[in-house]
Amino acid sequence: MSKVEEFEDLRPLLFSIAYRILGSVSEAEDAVQETWLRFDASATRPESVKAFLSATVTRISIDVLRSARVRREAYVGPWFPEPLLDDPYQDPGRAAELADSVSMAALLLLERLSPLERAVFVLREVFAFGFGDIATAVGRSEAACRQLLVRARRHMDAGRPRFEADRKERRELATRFFDALAGGDVDALRSLLAADVQLVGDGGGKAPQLARAVVGADKVARLLGGVFPWLFQVDVSFEPHEVNGQPGAIFRDRGGRILHTLVLDVLDGRIQTIRSVINPDKLGHLGPVADAWAVDREVRQARGPQA
Description:
By secondary structure, the chain is α+β, with helices and mostly antiparallel strands. Helix content is 54%, strand content 13%.
């Protein structure tokens, strides 16, 4: 097998590691590309190509995350990971761990960890790497890695997100939600929401966004039922799609360009959190991006003086 073939065979794993450490599709893709360049430039073949490439992409991702955290501290409004529609790495034996670890809720929880804790947690808890390979990847002793994992687990267990176990039930609830959204049915929306549901948006100051989270079933239902029918009147459309392993949808303007994504956290038969990513910088990997400000102006014109 050639170097290129070996690398391409492992590319899905490398991207999945990098994305969970970074929470960014574009940065993860860059980390994978840099890993290839280093692999291609190496004069000797490593004993384990998988171990070498995994360690390389992990170290690159840690370095990128350290600088990214400084930028995120100055971010305008809530910061969410870049939406991921399909995780390229598949492992039937760890399907549940992979799906939960890529959710928006889990990635936001990982943001609380140090870069080293995050890398160790991802490699061990999500991908089941041995401590020897983890130690090589992060440049620490196995004992130190075990301590990093203990601290990471403590942070994660304190706020670990829980989701509806039955994926079919989640999809059915999401279908009812989007049907109610399309019809502007406030009562139907309210019936699907948890009492303390939160609606939060990430615009990064580059698109229309909520000034703050909207909390409570009645407030969220009224906002959704009051806004989305007007979006549909200016030919905004949506397609249901899993986003970060959870039920969600992709919204497009009349030209088919990506306007935003919406993802739902479901627990105990109710929607607990609704997250929207509308920052255009986080949507480019999904396709051509809409001008959200232009859509907002259209909606305001359609609504007239009442807007």
